[in-house]
Write a structure and sequence with these properties.
The complex is a heterotetramer, with two copies of chain A (about 325 residues) and two copies of chain B (about 350 residues). Chain A folds into two domains: about 1-180, 3-Layer(aba) Sandwich (Rossmann fold); about 195-320, 3-Layer(aba) Sandwich (Rossmann fold), CATH 3.40.50. In chain A, about 35% of the residues lie in helices and about 20% in strands. Chain A has twelve helices and 14 strands. Chain A has helices spanning about 5-20, 45-50, 60-70, 90-95, 100-105, 130-135, 150-160, 210-225, 240-250, 265-280, 300-305, 310-320, and strands spanning about 1-5, 25-30, 55, 75-80, 115-120, 140-145, 165-170, 180, 195-200, 205, 230-235, 235-240, 255-260, 290. In chain A, the strands form three sheets. Chain A has a seven-stranded mixed sheet, sandwiched between helices. A five-stranded mixed sheet of chain A has the order 9-11-10-13-14, sandwiched between helices. In chain A, strand 10, helix 8 (about 210-225) and strand 11 (about 230-235) form a beta-alpha-beta unit. In chain A, helix 3 packs parallel to helix 4 (about 90-95). Chain B is of the alpha/beta class and about 350 residues long. Chain B has one domain (about 45-345): Thiamin diphosphate (ThDP)-binding fold, Pyr/PP domains (Rossmann fold). Chain B has a five-stranded parallel sheet with strand order 1-2-3-7-6, with helices on both faces. Chain B is globular. Chains in contact: A-B, A-C, A-D, B-C, B-D, C-D. Chains C and D meet through helix 3, helix 4 and helix 5 of C and helix 6 and helix 7 of D. The complex binds thiamine diphosphate (2 copies) and magnesium ion (2 copies).
């Protein structure tokens, strides 16, 4: 096993799939010579060149539509929308078309398309918006958001092989912010399965993307107080792994959900509502959601630190479910 | 019983035609022909106009009109295509079965039929019958992908223009010389998707032909009220592609123009934007009295009826006798009546297929 | 008081505001001579003519952007997106711009824009999609969805006078499907306030749009069994009237949420999560959400009847919260 | 202390200039001038070129360059505008203060400054200071709306093109003759929003001028790699508006061309699409080594430096002596240094304004 950064793991996953299947190809802006936004396609141009890598103009809706058309023809396009902030430009293509084609053709056609995009605050200042919750709402789409390098590699490979449109959210903070062991060989991680990143008996913390890291730090700090938190990395937001989540909550009796997207109407709402439906009797305290408060994400870093969920906030939420006052 | 469509076109250039099973293709249906390459035609139109072709174009227009009228009777929500048959038929006739098509939502049935779709199964859609290709899940304008037709599962206008660029890209990617033909409403050319799609198609020189089915109305608005430019072809230069205008009520002219563009695309010379000017003789939907426009305008265009014009040209040239014509109409009427009867006899949609499955592949 | 249909109430509200304030004007497709989709602007052209009514080409993003620009200049534009299905085409304008301008300019500029649109299944077959949940998630937007004619009139007037971007969702089934008394005079309904349409002690049914009607029918049928349901018409989805909702749940101890949008990730999730947070101790049973199952809305009416929530489904949900088996 | 900008331009045509309070305008800031009408100028440019104006254009270009370099030092995330000063200054000089502007995100500070924004408060933005106009909530390219500047609160490219059409629509609606000027990156002209906005502007003959700040790159791609058409002005015909190309490194030419279009718009003759071809001399962002392009290309364009070209023209014509020039640079350097010092001395962003308020008006 090698230790790879998050982005190196993703690029390796894409490269392996491109080697394995000549029908896998990329459409995106500056993904060639330049190496991609945040160097997110580094090295692919050198290996695969212009026949597999389409440099696109600033025409996101056409990029996505082109991906749908190519996927209908049996190819396996990966369309890169540089930043999640630009997903609003491709909503018609993804929601009205990609998501509904398999159903609308009564199962005859389908759209094996991957939409890759970058979200969250990070070393690069721009475009932090997290719109993933919208896509969870839409039947026909799958939504993936890995935290750990090995998962990132295994999931991007699974996304490319999936027969459905998959949105793949990469967190910009994690790009070179973490490094972890990645299994050798054809490492795949199934879409639709959460992963317990740290076991614990007192409370379940379900988190996505960068928030998993913050939840793990919180869990470490909580352990010093004798509180053992179980950290569930959702990995896939749609379809949601309700089974793993509920099993965890049945053990711990308490749930804190953490995401970087806005709290109101975020995936935390769906998770809280579902778990309360499925495991109501096992809940010993109200579920607490931790998300960004209802303000647009500010540009300035100091202000961002105020709004984006952090470790003390997660600890406070855990204390709340345990009926304790937090010192933070 | 009339001769089946598949038999009929055998003597034209449908000799490669392979009828895919309507069901059972679950992986890359549109890709079925992706690998085999066809010869190209050195810059000349795919096929020259012949009296046989002209007669067949006429027959298809007649059929289109009859089907359209039947659909208007079945549903007030149907979008009538009367008067636009020359664009419908001229754009999609003469393509190879492995070419990809994406007809505009107004009048697509004749295009689907030309690909081999069964008329009764198309009519099953407005009737809400279980035999409809999409089993009630998608609007009637959604074509069966079995026949290399881009499915249009939504009601929103625009995105298909890019999707058609995508199927063209895939054909290029597979080094095949298949071409995509897409008809677009002129009102739809104001959508941002038109701009982005044609930018990509022009930049990448994709093998796609865009035909604007300019019927001069977008619901209640006349083209002078919603188009900032004089001619739709004025927009072609911005995408680095030729823009060609053609009389959209002259089926032979539409056919030849599209075929030339198809030949260009097939040879790797890139996309073309064609404007075929025609007129929507009826309302936006079957129940629309279209009170927003002067009756004289409608009358003037009725005098240009593309079916009548084609009929007169054929009669004048002697390619069609009045007797042939009568027989042709009778056969078409019979074909539609039979399909309609079959469609009506089919089981209604509903349980056991409650429409809850096949969301994910 | 006169009895008006839902759409007549809305048109009357718009006309009154146009008479009151010369800065109110409309941009939309076929909203002039034609009288609007589903005759939704009938009579306005005759009274106000082309100087107040802009017939737009099929360019929704530009229509919305134009509305934002005009609102920045102090006008009060109402942009009509004929059907909710086309809202994906205006996401960038609404989410990245309209919603964030007041905040982004530190309170200096603001965008008094109304986006009017039609959703839901109805007599017209097309475009039933309900995407309202997406907008609840976005800070800076308000989301209104009336059910009753008087509310529809009062809320469209309030939306036009609001200083923020407001999305106004009209339900197509209700257009001429109901008729009700509308107070005379300058009738305003405040944005952000739910309304108890039927009081009851046993269970709260919170619903939106057409589903309020179905909930009221369900409540009548439930009353025959001796179950008194309180029906809360949310009216505004953002900001949500948490107070009224929680007060009702505190009285009844039980909550059923009903909406036509997809259940997964719908506003029912936010409501269930919030009520469980705020009124956990008062909940005697798990909250039940009723929404469209996770399939694209089919075109055919028979299939639609299978997926869209209906009265028996609401009754079954109420029975579920009461621990009873439903006969339906 | 240098003479303030407000004083300086008094002798030009800023006599209507009213400096709005930076704060305290909470309703319809941009509307402040909406009702009063101005005379129009019978088809001729708003103001003819004079040596004074030429010198002022030069001074503003110098200032722009110095401000830009300062910003690049403050932040690697800054988007450098070096080499594009002639478009920046030429597009926005000579407008009335009640006209509405929307500069492209690359190099907008000089445009904001020309409207009356305080340099230190602009520099406060990359520095993260509490005095910044948007108080840290929006990116630095977001202009203060106090000065009839369309705020650009997001990073996404495209929507502002329609918003600028909307401000123009509002001016028409109010029967004022105010004009909106918007600069757009040439890469951004491929976005669907460009198409839809220009369609509306052309159809409704809105008083808006679109200047394409064509620096030939969209991040790493050369224009030949992303534009399907030869000239950006090829797109104008599709929107029924004139398309005019101008040397984007000649500030006088840009100024005169834009002014002519502004005069047309002011008279109700509708919008214009102007392409000003220039070159991005540095990377996409301050930290970008721009290794994706040949150094010779950069060198060739450096020889066309618009600041140097303007300087030489002024020196040659005698409108500027070498001594004036020296003094001008020194004054500009001092102005920037002072503003920078003031900005740095301002309090940091953060509590008590934690950025959680003012979401709803
Ligand atoms: C994005 C979008 N906006 C608006 C509509 C509503 N609509 C349906 S048909 C139509 C007119 C289309 O005009 P055109 O493209 O000329 O096609 P035609 O109806 O004339 O065949 C409109 C505006 C839509 N379906 N999609
Ligand atoms: C909708 C959208 N797509 C992509 C981007 C990423 N992006 C930022 S700047 C840029 C290049 C813009 O090129 P151009 O319009 O020519 O402006 P320039 O940078 O050359 O000034 C791109 C692609 C974006 N900000 N918005
Ligand atoms: Mg039309
Ligand atoms: Mg550029």
């Amino acid at each position: 096993m090698r230790r790879l950064t998050y982005i190196d793991a993703i690029i390796e996953g894409i490269a392996e799939e491109m080697r394995r299947d000549p029908d896998v190809f990329l459409i995106g802006q500056d993904i060639g010579r330049f190496g991609g936004s945040l160097q997110g396609t580094k090295g692919l141009w050198e290996e695969f060149g212009p026949s597999r890598i389409y440099e696109a103009p600033i025409a996101e809706s056409a990029m996505a539509g082109c991906g749908i058309g190519a996927a209908l023809m049996g190819l396996r396009p990966m369309v890169e929308i540089s930043f999640g902030e630009f997903l609003p430009t491709v909503m018609s293509q993804l929601v009205c078309h990609a998501a509904s084609i398999h159903y609308g053709t009564a199962g005859v056609a389908h759209v094996p398309l991957v939409i890759r995009t970058r979200v969250g605050i990070g070393p690069y200042r721009g475009h932090p918006q997290c719109y993933e919750s919208w896509f969870q709402h839409v039947p026909g789409l799958k939504v993936v958001m890995p935290y750990w390098p090995a998962d990132a590699k295994g999931l991007i490979k699974a996304a490319i092989r999936d027969e459905n449109p998959v949105l793949f959210f990469e967190h910009m903070f994690l790009y070179r912010g973490i490094r972890g062991e990645v299994p050798d060989g054809d490492h795949l991680v199934p879409i639709g399965r959460a992963d317990i990143k740290r076991p614990g008996r007192d409370v379940t913390i379900a988190a996505t993307g960068w928030m998993v890291l913050k939840a793990l730090v919180a869990a470490d700090l909580l352990a010093r107080e004798g509180i053992e938190a179980e950290v569930v990395d959702l990995r896939t937001l749609a379809p949601l792994d309700v089974e793993t989540l509920c099993a965890s909550v049945r053990r711990t009796g308490r749930l804190v959900v953490v995401h970087e997207a806005w709290k109101v109407g975020g995936i935390g709402a769906e998770i809280a509502a579902t778990v309360a439906e499925e495991a109501f009797e096992d809940l010993e305290a109200p579920i607490v959601r931790v998300g960004t408060p209802h303000v647009p994400i500010p540009s300035n870093e100091t202000l961002r630190k105020v709004v984006i969920p952090d470790t003390p906030g997660i600890i406070a939420a855990v204390h709340q479910t345990l009926g304790r006052l937090s010192s933070g | 019983m009339t001769e089946s469509f598949l038999d009929r076109r055998e003597h034209l250039f449908y000799h490669w035609f392979v009828r895919l099973s309507d069901y059972g293709c679950n992986v890359g249906v549109l890709a079925s022909f992706a690998v085999d390459k066809r010869p190209s035609w050195g810059g000349k139109p795919f096929e020259m106009m012949t009296p046989e072709i002209h007669r067949e174009l006429y027959r298809l227009m007649v059929l289109s009109r009859l089907v359209d009228r039947a659909c208007c009777e079945l549903s007030v929500h149907w979008f009538p295509s009367e008067g636009e048959e020359a664009v419908l038929v001229g754009s999609f006739y003469g393509l190879r079965p492995d070419d990809v098509i994406a007809p505009h939502y107004r009048g697509p049935f004749i295009a689907f039929y030309m690909r081999g779709a069964a008329l009764d199964r198309l009519l099953a859609s407005p009737l809400g019958k279980a035999t409809s290709y999409t089993r009630g899940r998608a609007p009637a304008h959604c074509g069966p992908p079995h026949f290399n037709i881009i499915p249009w599962v939504s009601g929103d206008l625009g995105p298909i223009i890019s999707i058609a660029a995508g199927t063209a890209l895939a054909c290029r990617y597979k080094q095949s010389d298949r071409v995509t033909v897409h008809t677009i409403g002129e009102g739809t050319t104001n959508r941002g998707d038109f701009h982005e799609a044609l930018t990509l198609a022009g930049l990448w020189k994709l093998p796609v032909v865009y035909v604007v089915q300019n019927n001069q109305y977008a619901i209640s608005l006349h083209i002078s009220e919603f188009m900032p430019c004089k001619e739709i072809t004025d927009r072609a230069a911005g995408y680095g592609m030729p823009g060609v205008a053609v009389d959209g009520n002259d089926v032979a002219a539409v056919f030849e123009t599209v075929q030339e563009a198809v030949a260009r695309a097939r040879q790797g010379l890139g996309p073309t934007l064609i404007e075929a000017r025609t007129y929507r003789l009826r309302g936006h939907w079957a129940g629309d009295p279209a009170a927003y426009r002067p009756p004289e305008e409608v009358e003037a265009w009725r005098a240009q009826d593309p079916v009548v014009r084609c009929q007169q040209a054929l009669l004048a040239s002697g390619a069609l006798t009045p007797e042939d014509d009568k027989a042709l109409w009778a056969a078409a009427e019979e074909e539609v009546a039979e399909a309609l009867a079959k469609a009506k006899a089919a089981p209604d949609l509903g349980t056991p297929d409650a429409g809850l499955n096949e969301v994910y592949a």
